[in-house]
Design brief:
Radius of gyration of chain A: 14 Å
CATH topology of the largest domain in chain B: TIM Barrel
CATH architecture of chain A: 3-Layer(aba) Sandwich
Strand order of the largest sheet of chain A: 2-1-3-4-5
Largest sheet of chain A: 5 strands, parallel
Largest sheet of chain B: 9 strands, parallel
Number of strands of chain A: 5
Mean pLDDT of chain B: 96
Strand content of chain A: 15-25%
Number of strands of chain B: 11
Number of domains of chain B: 2
Shape of chain A: globular
Strand order of the largest sheet of chain B: 7-6-5-4-3-11-10-9-8
Low-confidence stretches of chain B: none
Largest interface: A-B, 36 and 44 residues
Helix content of chain A: 40-55%
CATH architecture of the largest domain in chain B: Alpha-Beta Barrel
Distance between the termini of chain B: 47 Å
CATH class of the largest domain in chain B: Alpha Beta
CATH superfamily of the largest domain in chain B: Methylmalonyl-CoA mutase
Strand content of chain B: 5-15%
Helix content of chain B: 40-55%
Radius of gyration of chain B: 24 Å
CATH topology of chain A: Rossmann fold
Oligomer: heterodimer
Mean pLDDT of chain A: 91
C-alpha cells in the first residue's frame, strides 16, 4: 500500500475567495501525513481536473462557500469521468444546503462536509474510504 | 490616575489575597483551566486592579468623548444624541428582489442601506460572462449595468438615506452607477451620503476579491478619494476593513493592527498624490468585526480610536479634529454562526451586537441566524434587526457614554492590544510596508496560522462551541430558508442583452476609449467611468478595459 504518500488535491473552484477552510483542511491533512497540493483560489473545473491528473491524486477536496456548487461540481465530475478518473475520491466542503447533499452524492461525490466539521472527521473519512488501516503518516513511515 | 502609594497598597493586598484566600479556594476547587485566554489566545488574569492600569493618565489616554484621543467615543454625546445607524447588509438574485428586501427592511425600521453584490459583480464580470457560471445572485445582487442599479434603487429616498456598498475592485464603476442613477432622478451628487468599501489592501490580505496588481489598484483607490474630496462631501470613499481579516481567521489584535496599517497606507498614498490631509481624512471610515469575546472586542474598538487619533495628529500632522476620529461600522462575526442548532445564533448575535454598542460603533449590521446555511430569510433578518432595536431601546446601555471606561480589565486590555498593534506596525515597517508585506505573504500566513490554531483548539475541545463540539443534538432544528426567483438568471441576462441592444454603441465605444486613455495617462478615472456608466457601458466592459491596461494579480497558492 504505502509506496508513496496518499495524495490529496485541495481545490477552490469558481469565484469564491473564502479560503480559510480550504487552508485549514489542507494543513490538517498534511499534518496527518497526506501529501497535499493546494490549487489556490478561482480555479476553473478544467484546471482542477488537469491538476488532479498531473499530480495523480487519490483524493480531491473541493471547497465552495458561494453556493455555486450545483453548477461547478457536476462539471468537475463529468470531466473526471471523461478522463477515466472517476475512481478518484471526491469530497465537497462548504455551505451546502441539506437538499443538495443527495444530489452531489448521486454525481459520485463521496463525502459532503459542512460548517462545524472537525478536521479529524475528514481524515477518518478519507482513511475509511481508501481502506487505510493505519493513518497515512504511519503508512508512509513504513514504506 | 492613581496615587502611587495607594497603588502599592492595592498591589500588596492583591498579593496577600493570592497567597491566602485564593490559595485556600484553589486547594478545594482548582480552576477550570490552567490558563484563561480570550478567543484570540490573549492570556487573561484572574483579577484586574488599579495596579494593572497604574500608568494610565486619564486626560492623556482617555479624555472626553468627541475630543482627542477619542478613546471613549468619537462624538460628544454618542447614543444620547443619535443612535447608531442600523444598516443591514442585503442583496440576492435580481435587482427587483433585492429592491423589495430593501423596502422591507426600511419599513421594519432599519436606518441605512447596505448593498451586497454577487461574486461576478465583485469581480467585475457581467452576469453572462463565462467566468460567472453558477454564481449569479448567490452571494448578493447582480449589477451589470446602470439599468440594474436604477431598478435596485427604485423608490429609495437617496437624498435622505445613506447607502453602504460592499464593493472593492470595481468600486469606482459601481459608485459611478449609484451617482448617475441618483442624478437621473434629480438628486445632485453633493447631496448623496454613503460609503463604498473600496479597501483593496484587505482583499489581498484576506477576502481575495482582488483583480489588478496592488499598484494600479492603489491608484484607483486614490482616484476615488480625490473625487470624493472634490465632489462628494457627504460620501466616505473608503471603509478600511478588518471584518474580512477576522473572518479569514485572524486574532483580534491582528484585525486591529492590519486594518490600521492599511489605513496608514491609504493616507500615505493620498498624501503622495498631493492631497491635503484634512481634505480627505475626515471622510475615511472603518469597518470592524465584532466577535464572541465580549471585552476583547470592546477593548479593540477603544484601542483603534486612540491609535488612529494619535497617528493622524502626531505622525501625519492632521489639524482638523475630524481627521483624528476613527468612526466605524461593525458587523457581527459570520464565522461564529453555526449551522448546527441555528436558533442559537440569535443569542450569539445579540451578545456581539451589545459589544459593538458598548465599543461605540456608528453603524451596525447584525447577522441572521440562518447565515451558516443560506442567505437570510425575511424572518431571520427581521429578528436580527429587532435585536438592535431591543439593545437600543430596552437595555439602557445607550444612556451613558462608554460605560465600561475605567474598568480595570477593559482599560488594561485596551492598553495591551494597543501595544501589541504597535509591535505589528514595527514588523510591517521592517518588511517595507503593507504592500511588500502582502507580496511576501506575511499577513496571509499570520492569519492562516491563527485560523489553524483556533481550529485545532476546537477539534481538541479546548474551546467549546455550543452545538458543534458540545451539547450536540442529533435531530436538526428546522428553520425556513430563503427561496429565490428561479427565473432570476434568465430575467437578468435578458435585461443585460436588452441594454446592449438599445444603447448608443458609438457613445459606449467612445466612453470606453476615454477610460483607457485615463488609465494610461494617469488622470482621475472617476470622470470617464461616470461617462461610460451613463452611456450604459456594462460593468464587464469597463472592468475589461482596466483589466487589459492594468493586468491581473495572482496570489501564490500556499497553505
Amino acid at each position: 500500500m504505502a509506496n508513496r504518500k496518499i495524495r490529496v488535491l485541495v481545490a477552490k473552484p469558481g469565484l469564491d475567495g473564502h479560503d480559510r477552510g480550504a487552508k485549514v483542511v489542507a494543513r490538517a491533512l498534511r499534518d496527518a501525513g497526506f501529501e497535499v497540493i493546494y490549487t489556490g483560489i478561482r480555479q476553473t473545473p478544467e484546471a482542477i481536473v488537469e491538476a488532479a491528473a498531473q499530480e495523480d491524486v487519490d483524493v480531491i477536496g473541493l471547497s465552495i462557500l458561494s453556493g455555486a456548487h450545483m453548477a461547478l461540481v457536476p462539471k468537475i465530475m463529468r470531466l473526471l469521468k471523461e478522463r477515466g478518473m472517476d475512481d478518484v475520491l471526491v469530497l465537497v466542503g462548504g455551505i451546502i444546503p441539506d437538499e443538495d447533499v443527495p444530489k452531489l452524492k448521486a454525481l459520485g461525490v463521496k463525502g459532503v462536509f459542512g460548517p462545524g466539521t472537525l478536521t479529524q472527521d475528514i481524515i477518518d473519512f478519507i482513511c475509511r474510504e481508501l481502506g487505510l488501516e493505519t493513518m497515512p503518516a504511519m503508512a508512509a513511515a513504513q514504506s | 490616575m492613581y496615587d502611587k502609594e495607594e497603588v502599592t497598597r492595592v498591589r500588596e493586598a492583591k498579593e496577600r489575597w493570592e497567597e491566602t484566600t485564593v490559595q485556600q479556594a484553589l486547594a478545594r476547587f482548582p480552576e477550570r483551566y490552567e490558563t484563561f485566554t480570550t478567543v484570540s489566545g490573549q492570556p487573561i488574569r484572574r483579577l484586574y486592579t488599579p495596579d494593572d492600569v497604574a500608568d494610565m493618565d486619564y486626560l492623556r489616554d482617555l479624555g472626553m468623548p468627541g475630543e482627542y484621543p477619542f478613546t471613549r467615543g468619537p462624538y460628544p454625546t454618542m447614543y444620547r444624541g443619535r443612535l447608531w445607524t442600523m444598516r443591514m447588509f442585503a442583496g440576492f438574485g435580481t435587482a427587483e428582489e433585492t429592491n423589495r428586501r430593501f423596502k422591507y427592511l426600511l419599513a421594519e425600521g432599519e436606518t441605512g442601506l447596505s448593498i451586497a453584490f454577487d461574486l461576478p459583480t465583485l469581480y467585475g464580470y457581467d452576469t453572462d460572462a463565462p467566468e460567472a457560471e453558477g454564481e449569479f445572485g448567490k452571494c448578493g445582487v447582480a449589477v451589470s449595468s446602470l439599468r440594474d442599479m436604477e431598478i435596485l434603487l427604485d423608490g429609495i429616498p437617496l437624498d435622505k438615506i445613506t447607502t453602504s456598498m460592499t464593493i472593492n475592485s470595481p468600486a469606482a464603476v459601481i459608485w459611478a452607477m449609484y451617482i448617475i442613477a441618483a442624478e437621473k432622478r434629480g438628486i445632485p451628487r453633493r447631496q448623496l451620503g454613503g460609503t463604498i468599501q473600496n479597501d483593496i489592501l484587505k482583499e489581498y490580505i484576506a477576502q481575495k476579491e482582488y483583480i489588478f496588481p496592488p499598484e494600479p489598484s492603489m491608484r484607483l483607490v486614490v482616484d476615488t478619494i480625490e473625487f470624493a474630496a472634490n465632489e462628494m462631501p457627504r460620501w466616505h470613499p473608503i471603509s478600511i476593513s478588518g471584518y474580512h481579516i477576522r473572518e479569514a481567521g485572524s486574532t483580534a489584535v491582528q484585525e486591529l493592527a492590519f486594518t490600521l496599517a492599511d489605513g496608514f497606507t491609504y493616507v500615505e498614498a493620498a498624501l503622495e498624490r498631493g492631497l491635503d490631509i484634512d481634505s480627505f481624512a475626515p471622510r475615511l471610515s472603518f469597518f470592524f468585526n465584532v466577535h464572541n469575546d465580549f471585552f476583547e472586542e470592546i477593548a479593540k474598538f477603544r484601542a483603534a480610536r486612540r491609535i488612529w487619533a494619535r497617528e493622524m495628529r502626531e505622525k501625519y500632522g492632521a489639524k482638523n479634529p475630524r481627521s483624528w476620529t476613527l468612526r466605524f461600522h461593525a458587523q457581527t462575526a459570520g464565522c461564529t454562526l453555526t449551522a448546527q442548532q441555528p436558533e442559537n445564533n440569535v443569542v450569539r448575535v445579540a451578545i456581539q451586537a451589545l459589544a459593538a454598542v458598548l465599543g461605540g460603533a456608528q453603524s451596525l449590521h447584525t447577522n441572521s441566524m440562518d447565515e451558516a446555511l443560506a442567505l437570510p430569510s425575511e424572518l431571520a433578518v427581521r429578528i436580527a434587526l429587532r435585536t438592535q432595536q431591543i439593545i437600543a431601546h430596552e437595555t439602557g446601555v445607550t444612556n451613558t457614554i462608554d460605560p465600561l471606561g475605567g474598568s480595570f480589565y477593559v482599560e488594561s486590555l485596551t492598553n495591551t492590544m494597543e501595544s501589541q498593534a504597535y509591535d505589528y506596525f514595527r514588523k510591517i515597517d521592517a518588511l517595507g510596508g503593507v504592500i511588500p508585506a502582502i507580496e511576501k505573504g506575511f499577513f496571509q500566513q499570520e492569519i492562516a496560522e491563527a485560523a489553524f490554531q483556533y481550529q485545532m483548539e476546537v477539534d481538541a475541545k479546548r474551546r467549546i462551541i455550543v452545538g458543534v463540539n458540545e451539547y450536540v443534538e442529533d435531530t436538526p432544528m428546522e428553520i425556513p430558508l430563503l427561496e429565490m426567483d428561479p427565473q432570476g438568471y434568465e430575467r437578468q441576462v435578458a435585461r443585460l442583452r436588452e441594454v446592449r441592444r438599445t444603447r448608443d454603441n458609438r457613445e459606449v465605444l467612445k466612453a470606453l476609449r476615454e477610460v483607457r486613455r485615463a488609465a494610461r495617462n494617469g488622470t482621475n478615472l472617476m470622470y470617464p467611468i461616470l461617462d461610460a456608466v451613463a452611456a450604459y457601458a456594462t460593468l464587464g466592459e469597463i472592468m475589461g478595459v482596466l483589466r487589459e491596461e492594468f493586468g491581473e494579480w495572482e496570489e501564490p497558492a500556499w497553505f
